[in-house]
Specification:
Main location: cytoplasm
CATH superfamily of the largest domain: Dihydrodipicolinate Reductase, domain 2
Strand content: 15-25%
Order of helices and strands: EHEHEHEHEHEHEHEHEEHEEEH
Pfam families: Semialdhyde_dh, Semialdhyde_dhC_1
Shape: globular
Structural class: alpha/beta
Bound molecules: NADPH dihydro-nicotinamide-adenine-dinucleotide phosphate, N-acetyl-L-glutamyl 5-phosphate
Radius of gyration: 20 Å
Strand order of the largest sheet: 8-9-7-10-13-12-11
Pathway: Amino-acid biosynthesis; L-arginine biosynthesis; N(2)-acetyl-L-ornithine from L-glutamate: step 3/4
Enzyme class: oxidoreductase
Keywords: Amino-acid biosynthesis, Arginine biosynthesis, Cytoplasm, NADP, Oxidoreductase
Number of domains: 2
Largest sheet: 7 strands, mixed
CATH class of the largest domain: Alpha Beta
Length: 345
């Protein structure tokens, strides 16, 4: 059994990890932290876990985290990097759901996250935890930077076209929408029911931290400088993310060839569903599941290809993806504990 700990077990990605890992046949939940709920049985806070998780929360400084084989940090940016060096030295693997290890350049991290990096020496070895792009590296990693939710949709949508050198890397556009759970469980005026329901707005238009993360990863697959215009929106949903991606084709290619390219690229990816050309994927077809669905369009058969991508931000966008990485790191089947079908309605 894999002894697993979760730092930040009371947040939305933390409780999603608990839901997934409590049903994982090779996992023994060993430590779950919360500063605010120290001593409280997990199932008292989350009755959905009654009979499934018998642990109590403990404060991070009281929990002996070195008993774990792997620790998930479902915490705000800046927490994992303070503890990762000691944990790795003690032989504990680390999967960070925040951004501490996503950007290789510490100056870029500092620019976007407004804090100095606590352990820049670990950045070169951290593996970006997107299995569809990095499966082999994840298998042998001990430190995983789990991708941001928006970057997961943008990377998996643009990657096949960029890798095949079929699009102009300098004019990528992503128009994306997500629900309020993306902002976490902490209190914030913008995510109050009276503010977010019956409302719709863009945010971070002049700069969102997921743009540099996405560009850095896409750049690995392009000899041309990658440039991305990314506009996120908050929509009145709880879970879910929809990205509409636009790219300009630079080669003569048929719609059938584009479709075949995506189908071939993701034929061995258990959590990517390449839908028929011209389909309209819906966020609820992914709710509670680790599937990411995408579909290609070519308006007017012109030189713009539109890729529609949907996922559950808490699953493929966060906790599900992190468990997918853990499965690879410990030699479990990639889909173990992740085979839920989406909830309808
Ligand atoms: N929500 C989403 O859709 C996604 C989130 N992420 C990232 O995952 C991480 C977690 O997000 P989310 O679950 O939404 O966040 P939440 O705000 O819902 O939860 C944060 C958790 O971290 C704990 N925590 C806060 N500060 C500290 C600290 N200094 N030390 C230890 N524990 C702390 C909190 O518990 P307590 O205060 O009791 O200790 C709580 O359990 C974030 O970095 C986020 O950016 C990534 C992709 C998608
Ligand atoms: C609605 C909302 O606020 N969404 C979050 C989603 C980002 C996220 O959670 O991912 P990170 O780990 O990269 O922060 C945002 O745009 O900041």
């Amino acid at each position: 059994m894999i002894k697993v700990g979760i730092v930040g077990g009371t947040g939305y990605t933390g409780v999603e990890l608990l839901r997934l890992l409590s049903g994982h046949p090779h996992v023994q939940l060993t430590a779950i932290t919360s500063r605010k709920e120290d001593g409280l049985p997990v199932a008292d806070l989350f009755p959905s876990l009654r009979g499934k998780v018998n642990l109590a929360f403990s404060a991070p400084d009281k929990a002996d985290l070195t008993r774990c084989d792997v620790l998930f940090f479902a915490t705000p940016h800046g927490v994992a990097m303070e503890q990762a060096p000691a944990l790795l030295a003690a032989g504990v693997m680390v999967i960070d759901l925040a951004a501490d290890f996503r950007l290789k350049n510490p100056a870029t991290f500092e620019q976007w996250y407004k804090m100095p990096h606590a352990c820049p020496e670990l950045l070169p070895e951290a593996v970006y935890g997107l299995p569809e792009l990095n499966r082999e590296a994840i298998r042998s990693a001990r430190l995983i930077a789990n991708p941001g939710c928006y970057p997961t949709t943008m990377l998996l949508g643009f990657y096949p076209l960029l890798n095949a050198n079929l699009i102009d890397a300098g004019t990528l556009i992503a128009d994306a929408k997500t629900g309020v759970s993306g902002a976490g469980r902490k209190t914030e005026i913008a995510t109050l029911f009276a503010e977010a329901s019956d409302n719709f707005k863009a945010y971070g238009v002049s700069g969102h931290r997921h743009a540099p993360e996405t560009v850095a990863q896409l750049q690995r697959f392009s000899s041309q400088p990658v440039s991305l215009i990314f506009t996120p929106h908050l929509v009145p949903m709880i879970r879910g993310m929809h990205a509409t991606l636009y790219a300009r084709l630079t080669s003569d290619v048929t719609n059938e060839q584009l479709q075949a390219l995506f189908e071939e690229q993701y034929k061995d990816a258990p959590f990517i569903d390449v839908m028929p050309f011209g389909a309209h994927p819906e966020t609820r077809s992914t709710r509670g599941s680790n599937m990411l669905r995408l579909a290609l369009h070519r308006p007017g058969n012109g030189d713009t290809v539109v890729i529609l991508v949907v996922q559950d931000n808490l699953m493929k966008g966060a906790a599900g993806q992190a468990v997918q990485c853990m499965n690879l790191m410990f030699g479990c089947p990639e889909t173990e504990g992740l085979q839920h079908t989406a909830l309808l309605p």
